[in-house]
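note to self: the first set is below, dont mix up w the second
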Amino acid sequence: MKPAITYELLHECKQTGARRGVIHTPHGDIQTPVFMPVGTQATVKSMTPEELKEVNAQIILSNTYHLFLRPGHDLVKEAGGLHQFMNWDRPILTDSGGFQVFSLGQLRKISEEGVEFQSHLDGSKKFLSPEKAMEVENALGADIMMAFDECCPYPSTYEYTKKSMERTTRWAKRCKDAHKRQEEQGLFGIIQGGFYKDLREKSAEDLISLDFPGYAIGGISVGEPKEKFLEVLNYTTPLMPKDKPRYLMGVGTPDYLIEAAIAGIDMCDCVLPTRIARHGTALTSQGKIVVRNATYERDFTKLDPECDCYTCKNYTRAYIRHLVKTNEILGIRLLSIHNIKFLTNLMDKVRIEIENDNLGNFKNDFYRKYGYIK
């Protein structure tokens, strides 16, 4: 049986070890490293699928937990799956819902069987198990689906993290056994283990023995200092198979995307570009700017002098500030278009610099320009 998801390594940067590749999926190829915009509820907030294509979004992520609650996976399946439902013909990844469930805190109860939780919408009782998560994700029909896991908060004790990691491995086995559409959808395992190296090593070893078509690093970028993030990233990524996609979950700031690529990661996702857009903030080649601030009231230049997106071609900072200050939806839309384009452009450059064996120099230049290095 041919796997739904395969990875092709094209080049490794001699300067950093970063890798350039292609992920082959049922809905097309993904050039890596790649940033994936998040379309939580079968939509990237405020953007149409056509606009996502214009900003070169190769793949988007949708959220199992939210779609399980509404409109319900049965409805999406009846519509022909997520691709048909939302009119998106490129690859889609669905997370397992684990992170959202565990972020509910006191509203959920974890057992070996799964997680009982209260809906954040109406307080009704719901239950997700590895088997139920697979039922939902199979119905949604994404190209890549994630195993149901537990994401530990930061910080967590060694004892709790160990029990959680071992449960995640058992759940991963149950997910694989329950996965019904292996020729059409690839199921990735998620390496957990918190901030303990031996637990990360054990998690990776056990999950690799289950032979998933791809692997993710979960449980970092959850509020820890950057040094801890880099430490875990840099000792976990080499544990992952070189011939399969490597996914770092929940990362979207420019510096973290570059560091992930240098570490050998292929895929990252984050809500950041659209979330900060809703607060009037733009990512630019000179660093973040809060365009709603008064300093931009009479600034008739474009958001980013180096950007050629629809927003930058047609609108000024002053106009976008006016839209944001008056709560006009167009302001959020224009900032979202720009921010996602900024990150897809960044990853275009990262891929070129990997091919040119120059990613280390690019990182230093970018950091200085962006303001990470004073």
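second set (the one i keep forgetting abt)
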Amino acid sequence: MYRGTNHRFVRTLKGTAMALAALTLLPVLPVQASDYRQAPSQMSGLNARPLALGIGKSVVIDLPRDIKDVLVADPKIANAVVRSAQRAYIIGAAVGQTNIVFFDASGQQIGAYDIAVTRDLNGIRTALRQSIPNADIHVEGLGDGVMLLGSAATAIEAQQAADLAARLTGDPSRVVNNIAIRGRDQVMLKITVAEVQRNIIKQLGVDLTANMSYGTSVVKFSNSNPFTQSGQALVAGNALTTSFGNGPSVQATLRAMESAGVVRTLAEPNLTAISGEPASFLAGGEFPVPSGVTCTNSLCTPSVTFKKFGVLLNFTPVVLSEGKISLKVSTEVSEVSSDNAITISGLSVPSIKTRRVDSTVEIPSGGSLAMAGLIQDQTKQAINGLPGMTQLPVLGTLFRSRDYINRQTELMVLVTPYVVRAVAQKDLSRPDDGFADASDPQSDLLGNINRIYGVPGRAVAQGQNYRGRFGFITD
């Protein structure tokens, strides 16, 4: 048997001078060639016991018979000192591996040890226990490096252990981190995207066409005013045509229209992802966009790719500690628009209006992040007409057009992350809980298509005595 401490050895040697003298005078018995020849079978099958030592550390070995010879494969790595007939000390000198074999007077092997001398790991073990008490981390020597084994509650604890070991060893490349994560946290992200767009368009213009003949002279006049901001008129307009016998004819097309619209966008996606892993959500669709033309036998067909639009959400959560979350979130709201549309080979390709928000924050579980104030107010106005005539008071209106556009957009994004915990099945609800079709009299006489019921067996929590309909309602 052997004991893994050197206290007994230190107590035996009185003082530093005596220890040095003892280590100098104690015999290290060399192996003899004749002994090697006498016991080839024992040397070929050592049945060595593994033994780990730190640099400058020693262990006491008690053997069953008297020691005659000692074989040390590499004295630079470890050395053996015989203190008494059946006791020896093995001392680690440098990082490396070697083996030590003990023989009795008859040349028989009485003990063999595979020695692995590594760094002193007790300091690292103590530091890890103090800094991360809840983790089950084991430290093992690996050559001149350190291997971390065991498990930790979170990836943050595992990284902290690796950083601490790297600082104590002085070289991060000598630290091998094999710590397993016991349970990776999951994060549910509740997102509310609310957007309101208001559009006001005003158009006023007159197109004049005149045909006048005087004898052999013919004068034709045509003035068509475009709406450059909108790109086109909202309506075709009303035509007013006047003629005087066989005399001049004048045709006027009046285009006057005002348009006001409101667009409301609301999305409330809930996503769950493992800590450190990304997740995405899209509520919208894809529209085709020509990407090229393929011609075969003089027949050309356009190739099409699809672009996404709608409410797009991407986020990556990282649980830093209990209840604290580092969150990288990207939210995008886009829609197909005819503004800036182009026409390719008779095919109209629309554009996309996009509002995008990117942010990285640290907030507690259940805390909310509001990304608001994303307000855009855009006004476009243009007047087109016949030079000179547009400046005439009152009559100048007949020779010009006015195009006015006002767009107001406000976007707000609410983000609330939660560290996910297990939930009982009885606490879950579905949209179809309690749903039942309406009877024929209710459908025919009252126009109902369904009846609303409470969930069977569901007990209402104390203090939540609601009146009227509540829960999931399908109209």
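remember for set 2: The helical segments are 7-12, 15-25, 33-38, 40-44, 122-131, 155-169, 440-446.
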